[in-house]
Each structure stands twice: as structure tokens, then as C-alpha cells.
## 1
Amino acid sequence: MRDGNVLAPWSAPDQAPLILAVGVLVGFWLLLAGFGREAQRLKWAWSRPRNLTTRNASETPQTMGVVLNSALGLFGIWAGLIVLFRSSAVAMPWWSVFAWMGAAWTLRTVAGRVIVGAGDTASAWVEISRHNQTWMGMTLAAWCVVACMNPYVMHGPLAGWGVVALFVLTMGISAIRATQLLNSARQQRVVGILYLCVLEWSWTLFWILWSVRAVFRGH
């Protein structure tokens, strides 16, 4: 409880996560409007992940679309972490989200190439990871807009728990979709695919437990 604390007025929302979140939602609109191929593959990541394993020249996304897609995930997750840590009173280094996403990309790129080789499966795993982080970022951004605009949510436990709940939900869906993609890959290295699935779920469970622990520490 925060009895006795003065809440910020409705006209003065928490600007840092709100600006990031609104920017992510605007960026999503730009992605849909200007980068159809990247937007289509983003939709497939959570609806038809197996489609990501096949691609011809006409389906190759534009570089700027890939950059925008990655930025949506980065800034959406950043906004969510700001809300989480301010709600739970846990200190957050400014570079933590960059380190998290950089570690995820490195893990999947290196592990994929070492375990199954530099083929379509490794590339598809890295790609679906990018799309999954974008879906996570947009989901967290939408919640951040709600939390930041409502002082009763922002200054109570609901803000942090909302971030954790959506983070757990999106991480779980992402791991399921990545597993479906890996299982659909036409590879002879069954053991290699199994290792990638274990890595995906280990990474997911680690960060789910971390996020729950972070919000418990603050309350």
C-alpha cells in the first residue's frame, strides 16, 4: 500500500516510459503501412511460424523494415522495464535492455550455427526471435500507456504486476512458437533441434523467474 503518498495528477503522466510506448505504437503503424513483407512475417511469427522457414526473393524484407522491427522490440521492452522497476523500487542500469537483447541475439546466432550449421533453420530461429521480441515490446508498450496515464495504476502494485504478467505471457507464447518452428524444420540433426528447443525454453524460464523475483523484491 502507498497510503499517504501524493499521486501525480492525471495531467502529469510518467513521461519517460509513456514517450517510449507511444513511439512503439506509432512505429508499429509505420511498419504496417510501409514495410509489408516484414509486417507479414511478423504476423506469421505468432500465427504460422512454419512459414518463416520458406522464403523466396520476393519475400525478403527490406533492411529498414528489419531495423524498425528490432527497434519496436527494444523500446517496448525498455518502457516495460522502466515501469516494472519504478513500481518495484529496483534499480535498473540504463544499458540493461540492450544487454538483454544483445545476449539473446548472440545466443541464438552462435548456438544455431554451431549446433545445426549456417542454414535455414538457424536463420529462421534468429528471425522468429526478432519478431517475438517485437510482439513482446508492443504488448508491453500498450500496457505502459495505460499504466502511465492512470496515476492509481502507476503508483500501485498493479503497474509492475501487469508488466510481469504480460512479459510471462509473451515469453511463453514466443517459446511455443519458436519450438513449433524448430520442430517443423526439415533437418536430419534431430539432436541439434532438441538442443535448440532446450536453449529456447531455458532462456525463457530464466527470465520469467527473474521478472517475478524483481517484482516480489519491491513489495
## 2
Amino acid sequence: MKKLLLILVVALALAPNYSFANPSGKTCLDYRGVMVTWVASSSAAKVADASYTFNGNPVIVYNPNALGEKSANTRLFFQYRECGRHVLGMTIANSAQVDDWNKVDCWAANTLRYENGLKDGDFKALDEDVAGLSAEEWIQAAGPIRSVQTTGCFK
């Protein structure tokens, strides 16, 4: 019993640093209305990545340190975009269509506007920040490299 307890303590000590908290404190439900679990992992390769657990529960693993030189709004945009992928069902069939990614971008932008209070000037700065992503940074951001125009999401 002592040996098992020792193994458990060592395993927990060596485990990657994970925490379960939505970075914005907001609720995210997938297209079925199931609560999405947010998992912070400083070792995650992407800013945020929407997927499912082995039993079908929606999850977003995000790295709070990724794209650290970009604005907090830019990082939050990419995190919300992954929530949008769950909401719009884009996690079922990963689309390479730019129009599909534009829909998710606009979902994230609307969430930033209506839940976080971002204003028009904030979105201009966000679009410029995203336009300045290098190819290596796009790998962290997920999705195809493209022009993000959040200012066009509000009509």
C-alpha cells in the first residue's frame, strides 16, 4: 500500500501542469448544449485547440503563455474561436474552407463584443495584431493562414 501511494505521489508530481478553468470566466456550450471543459496547459502547442475527450465530452485545451507577445485580446480571440468551433459543430468535421473559419472568427468577435465589451477600435487593433502573425505563430493559432477581418463581422 505504501508503495502504491508513493507511486501515485510521484506520478502527480511529474504530471504536466494542467488546470481546469475558462480563461475568460464565460460559459461555452457545444452544438449539443453540452458544457465545454477548459483545460489550461503550459505545454500545449497551440493557443487553444477544440477537441473531445475519449467519452465524447467537449474540451478546449489552451496555453495561456502562447503568443505571449500578442495582445490579451488576440489570445482571447483565438480561445473564443475554439469555443465557436464547438458551438458551430466544426469539431466534428475539421473544415479547411476559409468561409467556415470566417464564420468561427465572427462568432469569436461577436463574443468579444457582447460578452467582453470590446469596441470598434479594439477590433481594428485585433485585426492588425493577427495580420502580423508569422507562419510559426499561425501554427500555434490553428486553422489555415488567412486574413482575419473581425471588423467585417458587425453589420
